[in-house]
Amino acid sequence: MTRVLLAGELAYNPERILALAPHGVAFCGGLWIDDPLPFMTVGPLPFLPGLPDVGLDDWPATRPDVIYAGLNWRCIPLVEALLPQARRLGVPVVLHFKEAPQRCRARGEWARFAAVHEGVDVRVYASATEAAHVEALLPGRADPAATHVLDGDLPPAARFAGADEPWGRREEPHTVLVGRPYGMDADWLRGVTRAGTHVHVHAHEAPDWPADPRLHVHGPVAPADWGRVLSGYDASWLHPVRSANGGDPAAATWDDCNLPARLATSFAAGLPVIARANPGHRVEVQDVVVRSGAGVLHEDAETLAAWLASPALDAARRAVAEERERWCFDPHAPWLAGVLHRAGGS
To answer: Are residues 186 and 236 in the same domain?
Structure first.
């Protein structure tokens, strides 16, 4: 059994970490950031009752075998602060980092991020593009054998229980946008709906778009209802971002590196994803679509509408059925538990 101190915050889908317990991981405490944003989960954790919350000065009393730190940019100052203490006590640190090296630069914390990247014993980045971006900017600062890739806030398997809403083609395609309309404005909507495609929005706040007969605004969908509510749509929107990195990972933006949370939500509901085509540029979601076939890379609203009306949509839905399991956390739990065991000397 490896005793693990959690450090930082757990972001989306925090209960995923319960999947580590059957693989010999025991959580012995939580050392949390004190300035979380609403999506950054910190303790006390209702799904781990009795887990003690500790401070930077008293966490050695928990005697962890390893520290598992993450997940987003606000954890970096805390991890930097705990590293000297961890070294003195011989406790290794595994950093699981998602968003974002670029945010650390924008906040004036690049030196801190670089020190953490180099100072931890193992680092796990959310995507291959993110890992390549960090290595391009900090070449040779970390052991490549101790640098891995796994999205850090994948949903637990229970969210993939089923896609219950029956699907069938309609006269016009019906697509869904889950969450905020990042990169989407009224002009974007107008182009999509004029091409004959409906857009259903499930979000806490309705976007500030003009009324349109092909725009349908709904409330948010609870994770337990992803399959029931979303699976009847034709496809799901990812962020329609334009890349300009020319294939150079050093020039990648966070949009180029990111695996948006709605990607796993879409696959949980059995939905192909819609992403903008960025030929000649390195974009992680583009790589996912090309590798898996579980979506479409479109260049304009008209080509998208044609794709949605074609047999390619049926093929993409079959590809999602084959792809979706890798987008929940549980299948990756044995590997991550092994990382923690090896780091902790088990």
So the answer is: yes
